[in-house]
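Final report, Chapter 2: Outcomes

The project's central promise was a pipeline that accepts a single protein chain and returns its three-dimensional structure in a standardized token representation, suitable for archiving and comparison. That pipeline is now operational. To close this chapter, we reproduce one record exactly as it appears in the project archive, with the input sequence first and the structure output second.
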Amino acid sequence: MPVAVHICPDRMSQDEYKQVIGELEKSGVQEGRLYHAAYGDDDDVRMFEVWRSQEEFDAHSDKLFATLQGAGVNVDRVEVHPLHSDHAE
């Protein structure tokens, strides 16, 4: 079952976000990720993702959080919720 993942760092700048995404793309962490979006102010970037399953997110979460930590980003909150429906256009 697909899951929605909301990643809320204490503070993440757009430059830190670009660094993290670049490193993750090189490492292949996006395998199993169906959708990714980032939003927020210049120094308050947050991420929203959809993964094929909880297991696929879990398989990549250690690398994700290590990459965030390596960029000096402390993750305040991560919410994972099962998706009940998909309404793509």
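Archive annotation: The first strand starts at residue 3 and ends at 9.
This record, like all others produced under the grant, will remain available to the consortium after the project formally closes.
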